[in-house]
Amino acid sequence: MPQIQLLSEEAINQIAAGEVVENPASVVKELVENSLDAGSTEIHIDIAFGGLNLIRVSDNGSGMEKEDALLSIQRHATSKILQFNDLFRLSTMGFRGEALAAIAAVSKMTVMTATEVGTKLEIDAGEVKKVGPCARQRGTTVEVRDLFFNVPARKKFQKTPPALAAEVYRLVTTLALSRPDVSFSLCSSGKTVLETMAFGERAEQLIGSAFVKESITVSFEEGGLKLTGRLGLPSQARQNRMGQYLFINQRAVICAPINFAIREAFGNRLEDKAHPSYLLHLSLPPDLIDVNVHPQKREVRLRDEKAIRQVLQEAIRQSFEEPLRPIITFSPQEPISWQETPAFNFLAQEEPLTLFPVQEEIRVVGLYAHFLFIEEGEGLCAVDLCNARYRLIYNQLMDAKADSLEKQGLLLPFTVDCNPVEAAMILTHMEAIEALGFHMRSAGKQLFMIEAIPPFMREADVKAFILEAAGALQSFIGGSDIAVKRKEKLALLAARFAKNQKIFNVEEAVSIVRALKKTHSNRDCPQGTLTQVVISRDEIQRLFTH
Ligand code: ADP
Ligand code: MG
Q1: Burial of 208 (C-beta count, 10 Å sphere; 0-12/13-18/19+)
Q2: Which of 105, 159, 274, 529 could link 13 by a cystine bridge, Cβ 3.0 to 4.6 Å?
Q3: Are 427 and 378 in contact (CB under 8 A)?
């Protein structure tokens, strides 16, 4: 028997499906893009169990005749291009002609579609089981049940249903922002979770009023390039890319050079690791972009990339030329309650320092900015209190047993409001966030009531932290060490926020240093920057000698 064998059609389809159909969100994406290509103005999406049990997309687009419907689920069947060169004049979302075939190969699919007459197809793992007439208005409904029922390996690597639903949510939001002229609705397990408003209010509805208020309008045109939308002020910057919506020719894309160009245009208006928020629509002649790089068409490549980058940066600089509103760094209502709470409750009992052979007494030389200088042996030790606190809190969170972390009840609970995508993500990951010492509950569609916070966190940082934590958790997928990785990530994030405290009094500083001496891995912070530096008397003397 020969070693090499041709793959069966079934195997080929399943392999191809792996490229296009990663998870429920990618199915929704393909189906909705087909609806958009069919000229629909209303698209309704239903999912159940995160999309694993059911994904249904209904539209009022062109619909298909029976023959076309049967062809549509074959591989490389498309009505959108005839030859390779057409790829460079592309104005539709789809073109590879493989999405429906790929989805059908890994699910139980029903297609109901009608032009004047209606047709219903039932397909099981890619095999057409039934074809018949049906009553339907013009348009198409594709129903996908039991996704991945015949590819258990892929099913195993799916996130939890709430996390999958949150992804679908984010995707539909993105699609709704890409096409303000089309109305969208999304139901998850029977509940309507998103129903788009008209064009004008959509950004506010989907990204949030804070973004709309704290952003500037961009409107720029040069040659065949047009850039419109909103650019978030530095106050809207995030630690991740969740606030970035870029559409090229109405397609939501990832385009690293463009992201880079935008980031660069912000210059030092932003801190090093901050990512700007934006909602930008770029339109370009279709022959300047190549979308055929990525099977899901998420990544695009630009021809003449340099010129496009330059024009973009110019556009953004011009938009910034209006004077920027000052960024508020201090607000009088900034909660003071946290200062009344002891910064280090976990240090309450002052045990003798036995772990390290250091002197019992800390002989303080002085406190300068966020550095505490103490005498150490024959020299001077400078402790960076921010880094020290970063290390301490990280260790505390990592070493804590489940549910043993202290919660600081608030006398005045406060609310955190967010946009629908953020709310879905927070809900999904609420338990993990609460385990850090928060107590929160959902208080309306996009509102959370915060009733307790960890003692090390400032009220002012709570919203940013929760959003970042939910975003970070959202990006995890299954795997054996997932629990440990999640714990590490959360601890790192929370501890980093603790660094925001920059002002210390001497008692606080001393208690931080005491605790630092007692904790493990205390030489540097979790990101590897030193917590303390010792300078010997000789070294100091040398500074004064030549
Ligand atoms: P592609 O979108 O790349 O052409 P698909 O497999 O996604 O490939 O779809 C195959 C074909 O089926 C499309 O080219 C289109 O003609 C038809 N089709 C798919 N979905 C719809 C729909 N919702 N309405 C009308 N036609 C559709
Ligand atoms: Mg398609």
Answers
A1: buried
A2: 105
A3: no
Q: Which of 37, 41, 74, 84 for a ligand 1 pocket mutation test, highest count of atoms within 8 Å of Cβ?
A: 37
Find out whether 2 and 26 touch, Cβ atoms under 8 Å. Answer: no
Residues with CB under 6 A from ligand 1: 30, 34-35, 38, 59, 61-64, 72, 77-80, 94-101, 140
Residue 489's nearest CA partner among 509, 508, 519, 468 is 468
Counting ligand 1 atoms within 8 A of each CB, the residue from 20, 28, 30, 34 with the most, and so the one to mutate, is 34
What does the block give as tokens for 342?
């002891």
From residue 45, give the alpha-carbon distance in Å to each of 149, 197, 286: 21, 16, 29
**What's the burial of 220, exposed, middle or buried (CB within 10 Å: 0-12/13-18/19+)?**
middle
What is the identity of the amino acid at 16?
A
Return residues with CB closer than 5 A to ligand 2 (ion). 34, 94, 99
CA 7-9-15 angle, to 5 degrees, is 75
Take atom 13 of ligand 1 and give the residue whose Cα is closest: 78
- Tens of pLDDT, residues 220-272: 888 788 888 888 888 888 877 888 888 888 888 878 888 888 888 887 778 87
Residue 352 confidence (pLDDT) above 50: no
Question: Is residue 247 a contact partner of residue 178, using CB atoms and an 8 Å limit?
Answer: yes
Ligand 2 mean position, distance from CA 459 (Å): 46
Confidence of residue 104 (pLDDT cuts 50, 70, 90): very high
State which amino acid sits at residue 171.
Answer: L
In sequence order, the 6+-apart residues with CB closer than 8 A to the CB of 119 are: 64, 65, 66, 69, 111, 112, 113, 131, 132, 133, 134
Q: Which residue has the least CA distance to atom 27 on ligand 1? A: 34
| Cα 88 to middle of ligand 1, angstroms | 19
Ligand 1 atom closest to the Cα of residue 142 is 23
pLDDT for 390 equals 94
Give the CB-side neighbour count of residue 158, counting CA atoms within 13 A: 29
Q: Would you say 491 and 397 are in contact if contact means Cβ atoms under 8 Å apart?
A: yes
Contacts of 203 (CB under 8 A, 6+ apart): 177, 211, 212, 230, 279
Q: DSSP readout, 243-291?
A: GEEEEETTEE-B-HHHHHHHHHHHGGGS-TT-B--EEEEEE--GGGEE-
Residue type, 201: E
Phi, psi of 401 (to 5 degrees): -80, 160
pLDDT above 80: residue 490: yes
**Measured between alpha carbons, how far is 27 from 24 in angstroms, rounded to an integer?**
5
C-alpha 27 – ligand 1 centre gap (Å)? 13
Q: What is the mean pLDDT of residues 482-505?
A: 87
198 vs 148, 202, 251, 309, CA distance in Å?
Answer: 36, 6, 19, 32
Determine the distance separating the centroid of ligand 2 and the alpha carbon of 105, expressed in angstroms.
Answer: 15
Q: How far is the CA of 342 from the centre of ligand 1 (A)?
A: 62
The C-alpha atoms of residue 324 and residue 321 are separated, in whole angstroms, by 8
